[in-house]
Design a protein that fits this description.
Elements (H helix, E strand, L loop, with lengths): L1 H25 L7 E14 L4 E14 L22 H30 L1 E2 L6 E2 L10 H5 L6 E5 L2 E2 L4 H12 L6 E7 L2 E7 L2 E2 L5 E2 L7 E2 L4 H28 L1 H4 L6 H14 L4 H17 L6 H14 L5 H28 L2 H6 L2
Antiparallel strand pairs: 1-2, 3-11, 4-5, 5-6, 5-7, 7-8, 9-10
Length: 357
Amino acid sequence: MSILAAIAVLAVLIIVHELGHFLAARLQGIYANRFSIGFGPVVWKYQGSQTEYALRALPLGGFVGFPDDDPDSDIPPNDPNLLRNRPILDRAIVISAGVIANLVFAYLILVIQISMVGVPDLSQPGVLVPQVVPESSSVATEAGIKAGDVILAVDGQDLGAGPAAIKSLQKNIQQASQQSLELTIERSDQILSVQVTPELGQDGNGKIGIGLQIHKRSPNLAEAFGNAAEEYQHIIVLTAGGFWQLISNFGETAGQVAGPVKIVDIGAQIASSDPLSLFQFAALISINLAIINILPLPALDGGQLAFLLVEAVRGKPLPMEFQQNVMQTGLVVLLGLGIFLIVRDTANLDWVQKLFQ
């Protein structure tokens, strides 16, 4: 299920990107005859009134097709609603709309997470207790633990902060079935000490009847928008810094480039250990997709925008044959890189390596 959740996140982000292109074209009355997720052979397709919708075999992205150069199209070459016949600004809007869609979607994801779920609060020590099991006989209730308490230490050992803190607390409780533990708790700026004896659960592990959380929520909508903006800026800075490191120190950082298999693997690990963090994972990948696509490289949105910039400066476009050759070469290189990353990342998966041991 965690793998499916990670795949779903990646698929949604690709769909959002391509929908940006598609809607930017259709809302301007520009023809768009193909909407595909993936590349290569068609696995499934549906023919709408104006557009063919398809899923393809290679899950390396997607594309929106236009009938401008389709030899089977019956649209006159001088039709003003063909993309190539539109002013530069109209075409720039269509080309950049995918990037804009990913950036906007990432921000909205963060707003939803912060207002409804919360973001991992990695700076504050301890583990928040968001709820106590509503049973009068639960260990936590008898010990006087309340929702909103923050557990700082177990038997005098500080838990630290972040995901490691919650894992440490869970381990201590699970391994101390029917053994007394001293919990140091912070409650309204007061430090308290309580004794608990975890009872034996049906799974053989100790439990005391509390939920655990390291997520900080902003239930006020205005506050959520503000906190989402701060988190958004933080992710942008980290992502841009990562790309700069890749460019400036390619030899040492190239091995860290991840393909779809690695991204799904990371997402599956997050889904299995902390499903609520999938929101932030989706925002991070969405921003990464936006930055990658805006790079001025052939076959990417940035490459097409670069052609438009040259056209604006020259007053006329570069020869169409030249543009097509550059884009096709770039697409081949991009697909080759994608296949290489899929093979490499698949070979590095734990379960694959175990097969060859």
